[in-house]
Design brief:
Length: about 325
Amino acid sequence: MNYLDFEKPLAEIEGKAEELRALARANPAMDISKEVEALDRKSDTLLKDLYKALSPWQKCQVARHPDRPHTKDYIEGLFTEFTPLAGDRGFADDHAVMGGLARFNDRPVVVIGHEKGNDTKSRIERNFGMARPEGYRKAVRLMDMADRFNLPVITLIDTPGAYPGKGAEERGQAEAIARSTAKCLELGVPLLSIVIGEGGSGGAVAFATANRILMLEHSVYSVISPEGCASILWKDAEKMREAAEALRLTAQDLQKLGVIDRIIKEPVGGAQRGQKETVEAVGKAIEAMLAETSGKKRSEILKDRRQKFLNMGAKGLAA
């Protein structure tokens, strides 16, 4: 288990409990069950207390946790007959973006998502979930296909932002993001988006201009990373905690503002401590959102999405 900074007291308690278990395994005659049980109770209580009132910056840390389930995990756990489709038919395939045809509860859909990777090799291959222009153009190609064959589109958002490298800019990064966002708005089929970790900048919006936007309880969604915001406003990236507070990037804040439609509860301690339960919860939420948008005419779906974005932020202004 990878522990975050604010989880250090928990790491000490769980470490002591594991040490006692190791002693018991080495010496079966040693009875330390009561001590282990006491430490387990203490760690459970501390875990609940830590996650009961996370600050925005702590939520950013949880959203970036390397052990959280990624797009690949959700595709494997929720979809059947997944057929990946590669390339933008113009330059190359971008491994930071996974997408293809699949079935969800035996219903044909198109699924697209950012994939960060889960070890050093795969993270480098996936460019840490930061898509290049060809990734967004691949997504546009898949959304066009979904529109043509009347298939709902499900997008999974988990990116610190679009890749800012020289090559990406030379190949039209801003234009690719804009076209992907525009394509989301033009779709005559339901588009559902789930922020499963980080939802950073235009790189996230390009997949999340949807009829329904859902967020996991400890995920974040913002126009810029807290570090980037702090560097611009205070010329000091170390002020990321203040920036996280100001950005209103938590699922709870964004639901109040009307930016998202639903929060998906995570297990105590975050999705990284209950991957299977989290994947199942996301599946139930997708099922509910598909039921809400099923049977609507193309014009109704377009109107629904347009109205959602026109109303965005009205709740917060009224308050």
